[in-house]
Design goal:
four-stranded antiparallel β-sheet; mainly beta; 11 strands; globular; seven-stranded mixed β-sheet
Length: 127
């Protein structure tokens, strides 16, 4: 049973930073690509960032590119999302997700490519 547990969300002022973590368990973590998504109230869940099994390939939504960094520590079975220069429009519940694929390709921006999901962590950015 794969389990993903996000942490690190919270309330932060605009311009601030947060580092989200997602701890995985249940199967070999190091062979699967991972993704971060977010969902704001009344909106669909959207892609934020993705990373290949070895961290060699990363991908970002235009809305967070240049402000965010996705990384992973396979020894700790954890993927991270560092977010800087946060804006009120970044307010959402952030989810990590795991695919059945190892290598990252642009189709992994699609929510349907992810089989396992965490419960999410709330990020609120005040203006």
């Amino acid at each position: 049973q794969v389990q993903l547990a996000e942490s690190g969300g919270g309330l932060v002022q605009a311009g601030g930073s947060l580092r989200l973590s997602c701890a995985a368990s249940g199967r070999t973590f190091s062979v699967y690509a991972m993704g971060w998504f977010r969902q704001a109230p009344g909106k669909e869940r959207e892609f934020v960032a993705g990373i290949s099994w070895n961290g060699g390939t990363t991908d970002y939504a235009e809305s967070v590119k240049g402000r965010s960094t996705v990384s992973r520590d396979n020894a700790k079975t954890t993927v991270y999302l560092q977010m800087n220069s946060l804006k009120p429009e970044d307010t959402a519940v952030y989810y990590c997700a795991q695919t059945e694929r190892a290598w990252y390709t642009s189709n992994l921006r699609n929510i349907l490519e992810y089989k396992y999901w965490g419960q999410g962590t709330q990020v609120t950015v005040s203006s």
